[in-house]
Amino acid sequence: MAATRLELNLLRLLSRCEALAAERREPDEWRLEKYVGALEEMLLALKKHSSKPAPELLNEYARKVDFLKGMLEAEKLSSSAEKALANQFLAPGRTPTTPKERTPATKMVHLQTKARYTGKMRSELLGTDPLSVNESEELNLRKRKGFVSEEKQSAAELDAVLQHHRSMQEKLAEEMLSLARSLKTNTLAAQNVIKQDNQTLSHSLRMADHNFEKLKDESERLEQHAKKSVNWLLWIMLIVVCFIFISMILFIRIFPKLR
After folding, report:
1. Which residue, among 113, 132, 146, has the nearest Cα to 20 in the 3D structure?
2. Short-list 132, 74, 142, CA closest to 111
3. For 147, which DSSP code?
4. Which of 19, 105, 116, 153 minimizes the number of CB atoms within 10 Å of its CB?
5. How many CB atoms are closer than 10 A to CB 26?
6. Which residues contact 67 (CB under 8 A, 6 or more apart)?
7. How many Å apart are CA 140 and CA 115, to the nearest integer?
8. Would you say 158 and 150 are in contact if contact means Cβ atoms under 8 Å apart?
9. pTM of the entire predicted model
10. Is 53 left (phi over 0), alpha (psi -120 to 50) or beta?
11. Are the C-beta atoms of 132 and 91 separated by less than 8 Å?
């Protein structure tokens, strides 16, 4: 069956995406991600097309598109170890996209990205220059023919990645243990401070209650004293009034009215 126009466009765009993926791209490069999104839409349309290709071809197209998508997702990871580990699980295409290719382009891209991420991870571990390591790895990769030792190298690189992840996990466990100890120490210190504050607050409340009782007693005494003072003043005023009254009567009797 002859290829439809949609399938030819998909093959052209897929070949262009593989060429972009093989190049060294800038971090802000956006074309490849847009192209891969368009590939997904075209592949979905091709699966629904009435003159769709054989299932084997569709699976191969989907395999290559998933590989490019997974490669873009791996590039967004933070550390080189995570990128290398994610790259190990990617599955490149099995057949060439164009007749000019002797080896599937996605397989070459897979080896290049694996060498680049492994070089970066090795440079992080050894403290060397990642650019020189990447250039030497890619140069050696271009000079390889036949890929005889590919499986052994992949196994060695996977062991290095797993070893690096194991060391990272151990380091992370130590940091978490240190954080747990620090948190426990801070919690105990905070508990002691809260306990002391509770004791101080309880003492302050007891003192406040004691002072309130004393103030109440003094208020009652002052009230009683005020009442006693008022009573004495009343009696004194009554006595003075009586004395004045008696004095007036005596004065009138002793000094009669002049005629």
Report:
1. 113
2. 142
3. -
4. 19
5. 6
6. 90, 91, 92, 93, 106, 109, 110
7. 10
8. no
9. 0.47
10. beta
11. no
Closest by Cα among 53, 60, 67 to 18: 67
Structure-token match 């699976």, residue found: 59
Tell me, what DSSP letter sits at residue 89? T
Residues 231-256: tens digit of each pLDDT: 777 788 888 999 998 888 888 888 76
> Tens digit of pLDDT for each residue in 108-123?
888 888 888 787 777 7
d(CA 132, CA 134): 5
| Helix (DSSP H) and strand (DSSP E) numbers for the chain | 7, 0
- How crowded is residue 4: how many other Cβ atoms within 10 Å of its Cβ? 15
Tokens 């002797």 locate to 102
Do the Cβ atoms of 71 and 113 come closer than 8 Å?
yes
Sign of CA dihedral 181, 187, 190, 196: negative
The total number of residues shown for the chain amounts to: 259
256's enclosing H/E stretch is none
